[in-house]
Amino acid sequence: MSTYRRLASLELEVGSVRLERREAAVSSDFTRVTTTVVLEGAGCEGRGEDVTYDAADHEGFPTPDLARRWTLAALSAHLRETDLFPAGPPQRAPSRDYRRWAFESAALDLALRQAGISLGEAAGRA
Questions:
Q1: By CB atoms within 10 Å of each CB, which of 40, 93, 121, 126 scores lowest?
Q2: Domains present along the chain, CATH in parentheses
């Protein structure tokens, strides 16, 4: 079985979505902003970080209703159809991927924690 299939079939239960915004003044004219997506469910939490470069793109960050049971593949497909920039399109095209990956990596983290296994175990690797 491929690594993708192994991971895609992992199940997770999402109870809530929470966001944690962080800012750091890197220079006098630049503030670095990131947003951590926290998915909580079944007594566990999974985290994924949106590293979208432009601070303005972190404004209006969505908290989609993801509360239900998913496989990683189903959640990923749902996110492809979800507007993750409801305040307007991002300033850079790759930001769409960064935003989606923040949710997907939080989901992967949550699924692994709920299953009580490591990424290596889930992928069938030593």
A1: 126
A2: 3-119 (3.30.390.10)
**What DSSP string runs through 59-126?**
TT-------EEEEHHHHHHHHHTS-S-TTS--SSTHHHHHHHHHHHHHHHHHHHHHHT--HHHHHT--
Contact by Cβ (8 Å): 86, 66: no
Whether residue 13 contacts residue 45, with contact meaning beta carbons closer than 8 Å, is answered with: no
Sign of the alpha-carbon torsion through 97, 86, 47, 33: positive
Please state the pTM of the whole predicted model.
0.94
